[in-house]
Design a protein that fits this description.
The complex is a heterodimer of chains A (about 400) and B (about 375). With about 400 residues, chain A is of the alpha+beta class. Chain A has 4 domains: about 100 residues, Alpha-Beta Plaits (2-Layer Sandwich), CATH 3.30.70.270; about 60 residues, MutS, DNA mismatch repair protein, domain I, CATH 3.40.1170.60; about 50 residues, 5' to 3' exonuclease, C-terminal subdomain (DNA polymerase, domain 1, Orthogonal Bundle); about 140 residues, DNA polymerase, Y-family, little finger domain (Dna Ligase, domain 1), CATH 3.30.1490.100. In chain A, about 40% of the residues lie in helices and about 20% in strands. In chain B, about 20% of the residues lie in helices and about 40% in strands. Classes of the chains: A alpha+beta (about 400), B alpha+beta (about 375).
């Protein structure tokens, strides 16, 4: 029988801050931006959640809800470091670790009973080891497939552990609300409420054909499987298919092309540096725009070759921007990144003709090495230089 | 319009027309094939707006005329009919099709007026020069497989052709390997500036040229025209700057292997069974009089094969995409090939033995 663990690091960014700064422990911690500036909540501690603060909420709103909170900027590098350490630790338990984000991973623990005992014993060992090595708590959900494991890790969060036993899948789902099902968004929920469907057992009574007629072919098939605990396949991404991206919320909405260009230049450099550092490469470039009315669009383009340099990434992202932005609507948030990543150490084919981006990539690698040795923006693009305030 | 024609004669032309037509949309005139009967000749025309095709075949014309029909169905009908003489008659916007001696099979295919059918490009007779078909086919064969499919490098999506002395050079590359051929001709080649030819027309020429006699070639700023036997084909050219291939052609290279082409090809086929199919990397270790081909070690296993060769130079290991090695070997006919190189990260050149008018260059992979 297949045994899948879904591991979720509890309130990850905030917990890292609380471990690093004992004085923050037991207090509401909000990470994202400082009050008085624009930006959204990237993460917050459980103490802050009690005040109604949530991820993606504007900082101003979070401040109104919890003015006594400790507000911090995102220290991505530190979180990456901790995340890497934990992921490495998982690899001691199984070779099949599928990291799906900085704070979440699936572990295929099938056939490890002889090594680590029953799934629950193994999970306890993992939880203890993470706690001991990093001071962080994690939640683990155990089930026969990824979908149920993901729901199970959420079920007893934080510091949770729950196993959906074989044959009890539907009974487990019946404890949940329709909105807890993964992949059920606002639209689907509204439609279900219109039809007066408010519980999972109710939803299970519908035939697949009927669900398909209401929610479309893909949506109907998805729901039909989801309420039966059959993996409908949303976490099927393979390890290489994730993405690296950066985004920024402007201090004030802007349609100043120069400001936007400069931000994009900076973002693309950050993305490229991380790709070099983490040894990834990819061909799909995407751009994310959020307008002042919060409508958000993402556009992407796929190259036939790997993105070679930040210059190239910037020029692709600029093209996407020119294509999609009418220059009239003020932009609130700008993001860019590369997806469909694969490891950069797969064998490389030499080129006959030197690419104009090849030289630039060499420069970027050199700059990256300097930055690694001497942190801080010692070497940056001239156009990113800020005027020194006298 | 009314004519009689052997099924197989027309089937051949309609099959070609079908392959040229890109659109399979009943409503588009571009999905249709044009038929024109007159003076004992049936003219068949098809185009995808980039490539044009016109063929003339002798038929028994009973009533001259001109129309277009949906090529997809026309082909289906012809394929299904028995091998005998077929009668085609246009009656009230329909093409009636049935075997001459049997009224029991009866197809009615809707006709569309030829008025909106795009004109095929033409160029005056004096623009053409002549080449032996056999040479032109060889030039295509030695280069076309190396064309890049990477649409972001559209200028490599075709075969580059230019005039050199009284000869022609054809070059194709995908940026990682390059194939080159240079043939001189006795007949006069007209002056033209280097062009990039899309592979579709070259593949078509390869398929249609019988290999005997001559082919007439004309080049204008935007198009290439090929006339031979009773067929005319034409194509748009790719507008772009082909890379400076002269820069990558290697001079004398110090390391030199002479090896049996078929033995190397067969060994590649065997060892490649164990090559990881994404990178396609194969190792070639060359020492005194032996070449060892081997795959990377994987969970499944490994493959290794030793070949004898004639080698001058220093012992080395090269890593290559095995397809880049295999594809040139496939289009060569000679018993032996020479492989020369200077260093494991520099270009490798493959020549026939004895040397001829073509060679292939391959960039290695990281070791």
């Amino acid at each position: 029988m297949t045994v899948i663990f879904h591991v979720d690091l509890d309130a990850f960014y905030a917990s890292v801050e609380q471990v690093d700064h004992p004085e923050y422990r037991g207090k509401p911690v909000i990470i994202g931006a400082l009050p008085g500036t624009r930006g959204v909540v990237s993460a917050c501690s459980y103490e802050a959640r009690k005040f109604g603060v949530r991820s993606a909420m504007p900082i101003s709103q979070a401040y109104r809800k919890c003015p006594s909170a400790i507000f911090l900027r995102v220290r991505m590098q530190r979180y990456q470091e901790v995340s890497c350490k934990i992921m490495e630790l998982f690899e001691k338990y199984t070779p099949e670790v599928y990291q799906i984000s900085i704070d979440e991973a699936f572990l295929d623990m099938t056939g490890t009973e002889r090594l680590f005992g029953s799934p629950l014993d193994a999970a306890r060992r993992i939880k203890e080891e993470v706690k001991e090595k990093t001071g962080l708590t994690i939640s683990i959900g155990i089930a026969g497939n990824r979908y149920l494991a993901k729901l199970a890790s959420d079920y007893k969060k934080p510091d949770g552990l729950y196993m959906v036993k074989e044959g009890e899948e539907e009974a487990f789902l019946d404890n949940l609300q329709v909105k807890d099902l993964w992949g059920v968004g606002k639209k689907t929920l509204e439609r279900l409420e219109d039809l007066n469907i408010r519980s999972i057992p109710q939803l299970r009574q519908f035939s697949e054909a009927l669900l398909k007629s209401i929610f479309g072919k893909a949506g109907g098939a998805y729901l039909y499987r989801a309420v039966r605990g059959i993996d409908p396949g949303i976490f099927r991404q393979e390890p290489g298919s994730h993405s690296i991206s950066h985004e920024i919320t402007f201090e004030a909405d802007t349609r100043d092309r120069e400001v936007i260009k400069k931000c994009l230049l900076e973002l693309t450099h950050q993305v490229m540096f991380r790709m070099i550092k983490d040894c990834y490469r990819g061909k799909t470039v995407f751009l994310k725009l959020r307008y002042s009315d919060f409508t958000t669009i993402t556009v992407q383009t796929t190259l036939r070759h790997f993105v070679n340099s930040a210059e190239e990434l910037y020029s692709m992202a600029m093209q996407l921007l020119e294509k999609r932005w009418d220059r009239i609507r003020p932009i609130r948030l700008l993001g860019t990144g590369v997806s469909s990543l694969e490891r950069a150490d797969t064998p490389r084919q030499h080129e006959l003709f030197e690419d104009e981006y090849d030289k630039k990539k060499k420069v970027e690698e050199a700059v990256y090495n300097i930055r690694r040795k001497m942190p801080g923006n010692i070497v940056i693009k001239a156009s990113l230089l800020k005027k020194r305030e006298d | 319009m009314k004519f009689l024609c052997e099924k197989n004669n027309l089937l051949k032309e309609i099959t070609i027309a079908y392959d040229i037509i890109a659109s399979r949309n009943v409503l588009s005139i571009l999905s249709n094939v044009l038929l024109e009967a007159g003076d004992g000749i049936l003219t068949v025309r098809a185009t995808d707006l980039k490539v044009g095709f016109e063929s003339r075949i002798p038929v028994e014309v009973i009533e001259p005329g001109k129309t277009t029909v949906f090529c997809d169905k026309m082909l289906g009908i012809l394929r299904s009919l028995p091998e005998e003489e077929i009668e085609f008659a246009e009656v009230e916007n329909n093409l009636l099709i049935h075997p001459k001696n049997s009224m029991r099979i009866d197809f009615k295919l809707r006709c569309v007026s030829p008025d909106n059918f795009p004109e095929l490009k033409e160029t005056p007779e004096e623009n053409f020069f002549k080449l032996p078909q056999i040479d032109f086919i060889e030039m295509i064969n030695q280069t076309i497989f190396a064309v890049s499919e990477d649409e972001s490098r559209y200028f490599m999506n075709g075969v580059y052709m230019e005039k050199k002395d009284n000869g022609l050079v054809m070059v194709a590359t995908d940026g990682r390997r390059l194939s080159y051929i240079n043939k001189s001709f006795e007949s006069k080649i007209k002056e033209f500036k280097g062009i990039i030819i899309p592979p579709k027309i070259l593949n078509l020429a390869k398929r249609l040229l019988p290999g005997e006699g001559e082919v007439s070639v004309a080049i204008t700023e935007k198009s290439l025209f090929l006339n031979f036997n009773s067929i005319k084909i034409s194509s748009n050219l790719i507008d772009g700057q082909f890379p400076n291939y002269n820069k990558v052609i290697q001079g004398e290279q110090p390391n030199r292997i002479v090896i049996s082409r078929t033995e190397l090809m067969e060994a590649l086929r065997r060892v490649s069974l164990f090559v990881e199919q994404k990178a396609k990397r194969i190792y070639m270790t060359i020492s005194e009089n032996t070449v060892v081909l081997n795959s990377e070690e994987s969970e499944i296993g490994t493959a290794r094969e030793e070949l004898s060769c004639n080698f001058e130079g220093t012992e080395t290991t090269l890593a290559l995409n095995y397809l880049y090695l295999e594809e040139p070997l496939k289009v060569m006919e000679e018993d032996e090939v020479t492989i020369t190189f200077s260093a494991p990260d520099k270009a490798v050149t493959i020549y026939p033995v004895p040397e001829k008018d073509f060679f292939h260059i391959v960039m290695p992979m990281q070791l």
